[in-house]
Structures are given as C-alpha cells and as structure tokens.
C-alpha cells in the first residue's frame, strides 16, 4: 500500500488550491500572509510535500475566499471522473 502522502487525491487537492490562488493573481507569499504563515508552508502543501489537515484546509479556503462546500464538491467531481488507481 502506498504511503498516504502519495495518494493521488492529496495531489488533486494541492493542485486545485494552487489553481485557485493563481486565478486570483496571488503569489504564495500573499496567501501565506493571509494565513499568518511563511511562504514555505504554502509551497509545501501546493507541491504535495506536506499534507494539510481539515483545520488548515478551512483556513486556506478562507484565505482564498473559497466556499468550503463548493471546494469539496469540485474535488468530489474531479475524483468521480478520474480513472481508478
């Protein structure tokens, strides 16, 4: 069984978070400032080097001004259309 960090679903979440940030025209540093964290924190979760827990996800979504329900719906939709691994 692969390590949970390498589960493709985490990468889909990280990719969507990066996409949402870029759609807003924000740098990682700007999101980090909104979170009260350093830029490395944002870089690590966007690259998949670090998982985020539920509380962190909610904080990130708030910083990105994204509705958590819409985010989860989008992830579920992506996973439903992805090929099983």
Compile the SSE list and pairings:
Elements: H1 8-23, H2 28-35, H3 39-47, H4 54-63, H5 68-81
Domain HTH cro/C1-type: 17-71
GO molecular function, one term: DNA binding
Protein name: Helix-turn-helix domain-containing protein
Provide a short characterization of the protein structure.
The chain has five helices and no strands.
State which percent range the strand residues make up: under 5%
Using only C-alpha atoms, the radius of gyration works out to 13 Å
Label the overall shape.
globular
- Count of individual domains: 1
Number of strands: 0
Give the helix level as a range of percent: 55-70%
User: Largest sheet, if any?
Assistant: none
- Uncertain segments: none
CATH topology, which one? 434 Repressor (Amino-terminal Domain)
Average residue pLDDT = 92
Gap between N and C termini, in Å? Answer: 12 Å
Secondary-structure class: mainly alpha
Order of helices and strands: HHHHH
Q: From the 3D coordinates, which CATH architecture would you assign?
A: Orthogonal Bundle
How would you portray this structure in words?
This is Helix-turn-helix domain-containing protein. The protein has 85 residues and is mainly α. It has a single domain (4-81), classed as lambda repressor-like DNA-binding domains (434 Repressor (Amino-terminal Domain), Orthogonal Bundle). The chain contains five helices and no strands. It has helices at residues 8-23, 28-35, 39-47, 54-63, 68-81. The longest helix is centred in the N-terminal third of the chain and has 16 residues, at 8-23. The chain is globular, with a radius of gyration of 13 Å.
């Amino acid at each position: 069984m692969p390590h949970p960090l390498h589960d493709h679903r985490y990468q889909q979440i990280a990719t969507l978070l990066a996409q949402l940030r870029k759609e807003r025209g924000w740098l990682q540093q700007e999101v980090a400032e909104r979170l009260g964290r350093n830029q490395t924190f944002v870089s690590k979760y966007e690259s998949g080097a670090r998982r985020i827990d539920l509380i962190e996800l909610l904080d990130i979504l708030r910083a990105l001004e994204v509705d958590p329900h819409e985010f989860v719906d989008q992830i579920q939709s992506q996973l439903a259309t992805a090929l099983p691994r």
